[in-house]
Amino acid sequence: METKRPVVLNGIAVVATRPDLIDRVIHVDLPTIPADARRDDADTHAGLERDQPKVFAGLLDLFSAALAILPTVKLTQKQRMADYERLGEAVARALGFAPGEFQQQYAELVRAGIDRALESNAVAQALDKYLVERVLPINWQGTAGQLYDLLNTHSIPDRSSWPRSPKGLSDQLRRIAPAYRAKGIDITHLGHSREGARWRIAQTRSQTNPATPPGIEGGTRYGAHRE
Hints:
Layout: H1 19-22, H2 41-69, H3 82-94, H4 101-119, H5 122-131, E1 139-143, H6 144-152, H7 166-182, E2 185-193, E3 196-203
Antiparallel strand pairs: 1-3, 2-3
Helix pairs in contact: 2-3, 3-4, 6-7
């Protein structure tokens, strides 16, 4: 059974919004085609028939060169799609790009996709506002009820999807945790106590790490106290 099949999703708005999906997605913003450059189906097929041999030969040459380089590609840090990242790095080097350039651009695309998806999440909006008041390093621990009360004090544009209870907040935290982990913030469920579900929100990367999420990098301070 072949299980590794790429899927292409197309849309005007952000298509991938679930945090467990967005770190497996590459967002590509396509340019607008001006009216004088549009082609009908017949022209497109004619061009494909004309150029297909050269394109196919070029792809085979590139693939061969990438496979020769692939055994030498060693990545110390890997994104979620590690095999794709390693092969992409080999292809980029075969095309003449410097080592690490593909990996850096790939990481930036993943972070951009995460930021896009979290922009539409009410809990993420409130959590970002709360975190921006904290002092580095972030290390908050408490119950879902305590966090619910803290986040409720922050205004967000749309509260239609705001959780109605601490339990609902816990469900949302589980959904957004993978996205925040990619941004350098670890959201961990610590189990239950008499007061309710306990959570920890902690920074996992240094302020100088290039993979640090926007808002942490560049000297932004996150508040003065820890609960």
